[in-house]
Amino acid sequence: MRADGNPLKSSTFRLSALYLLFFLLSTIALLGYIYFNTVGLLQRQNEETIGAEVAGLVDQYGTQGLEGLIAAINRRIEAKSPMLFMLADAQGAYLAGNLHTPSINALPDNQWIDFAIRLGDADGTVGHQVRGFNMQLPQDYQLIVGQDVEDLNQFLIVIRKAFYWGLALALAMGLGGGYLISRNFLRRIDAITDSSREIMHGNLSGRMPTSGSGDELDRLAQSLNEMLGQIEKLVQGMREVSSNVAHDLRTPLTRLRARIEAALRQENPNEYKTTMEQTLADSDALLSTFNAVLSITQLESGEQRSNLQVLDAHEILEDVVDLYAPLAEENHGALVLNSTPGLFVRGKREIMAQALTNLVDNAMKYGESKSGGARIEVSGIKQGQDIIITVSDNGPGIPDSDKPRVLQRFVRLDESRSKPGNGLGLSLVASVANLLNGKIILKSNLPGLRAELHLPYAAPDG
Ligand SMILES: Nc1ncnc2c1ncn2[C@@H]1O[C@H](COP(=O)(O)OP(=O)(O)OP(=O)(O)O)[C@@H](O)[C@H]1O
Ligand SMILES: [Mg+2]
Q1: Which ligand approaches the C-alpha of residue 395 most closely?
Q2: Which residue of 29, 199, 222, 437 could cross-link 206, Cys pair, CB 3.0 to 4.6 Å?
Q3: CA Rg, the chain, in Å?
Q4: pLDDT value at position 1?
Q5: Measured in angstroms, how far is the CA atom of residue 406 from the centroid of ligand 2?
Q6: Distance, CA 318 to ligand 1 centroid (Å)?
Q7: Which of 248, 287, 357, 362 to mutate to test the pocket of ligand 1 (most atoms within 8 A of CB)?
């Protein structure tokens, strides 16, 4: 099933349509304002000119009577005035002027009037709009002064047309542009959708396509890709762990089974007892492997990160050394501590003690020198913003080429096969270091191994 790729339904398109709507509304408002103001201004000018002309003529009539008025009108016409005049008597009979409207009686008195006239030109006659004032003079003479507003009207028509075309163009470009942008956007979303489907169907190494433009979609794809990389690494880790666990448990389980089978063939009750005891020891070893794997998994999930607290690592070093020193002496070796209080780190007592125990355990197991038991030194110092906890021995150490490898799960060096172990101890130390934002560094103690756990210093609360 695929997402509906209709650009018209996309949010990009809806958004651009909304913008377009606002754009059009504000354009209409602005242009409308300009248009009506222009029209108003032109009409007012027009009316003022006509009004002045009417006033002048009324004045003439007042001072010089009808004769004077007619003469004044004729003078204006001869002087090629742009105005139109008409003077009629009470019966509507035409007295003077250059304007002929037969229905002058029907026109309302003392008001602005709009009417059409026909003008002759080379091709016949054309209609023109006239705006004028119909003035009622004493003795019912009627004076009309008007002006041909055809040019003005044509001008307004042109403006209106430009206005409509502009709006239509903006609408078409807005909708078309919105459509194209949405289609382009949807194509990229579809590409991302396709990739995620492919990844969901098992191709964990698949990645989201990026256009290289660095825009928000690219950034989204990039962070998704980083996430996918992380997931792929985790899944790979899980696969390795499960195959390693299966592989590692098969040998002890087969041995256990063989031993029980052999014991069943015997009748000797003492033999049963030894078998049971060995079986118990074997199951303990199996359980400890499981526990170690579970602890590492839990540490790596980062769940514990929320309940860390500031504590003094020195106290943990003391506890571990106190616990293991007698054992070291029993094995003809020594375990000494070299640290002072004040090694504050943000951590958790149990997991830090576990990590330290693993390092001490390794030193005791593998750190024996040819001259006798393992001589182990545990130390803690503050260096810059780091707390460095070191466990060093004088044994054979680990070759440089194997140092990165031994931190992985289930890795044991060939020389150590004779000793018990699962190869999980150092992995757990690495997981603890990772959880506490620190790191584990394996160095040479010349001779021997020097395991350093670097943790960030944390100022104690209060
Ligand atoms: N102090 C050391 N000196 C020499 N080799 C070491 C030392 N510590 C670790 N190693 C080598 O690194 C390997 C991995 O160590 P790690 O602690 O992870 O596993 P392990 O000790 O074999 O088993 P586990 O700790 O699970 O009981 C060991 O098997 C050993 O070969
Ligand atoms: Mg170990």
Answers
A1: 1
A2: 199
A3: 51
A4: 43
A5: 10
A6: 23
A7: 362
Cα–Cα distance list, 362 to 154, 183, 351, 366, 424 (Å) = 101, 63, 17, 6, 11
Given the CA of residue 415, which atom of ligand 1 is nearest to it? Answer: 31
Residue identifier of the C-alpha nearest atom 27 of ligand 1: 421
Q: What is the pLDDT of residues 154-207, one digit of tens each?
A: 888 998 898 899 889 988 998 898 889 888 888 888 898 999 999 989 888 889
Amino acid occupying residue 65? G
Question: Omega into 447 within 30° of 0, i.e. cis?
Answer: yes
The letter for the amino acid at 26 is: S
Q: Over range 241-246, report the average pLDDT.
A: 78
156 within ligand 1 shell (Cβ under 6 A)? no
What are the tokens at 11?
Answer: 């949010």
- The CATH number, out of the four listed (3.40.50.2300, 2.40.100.10, 3.40.50.11030, 1.10.287.130), of the domain defined by the range 216-299: 1.10.287.130
Distance 303 CA to ligand 2 centre (A): 24
Residue 145's pLDDT band (cuts 50, 70, 90): very high
Q: Does the domain spanning 11-157 belong to CATH 3.30.450? A: yes
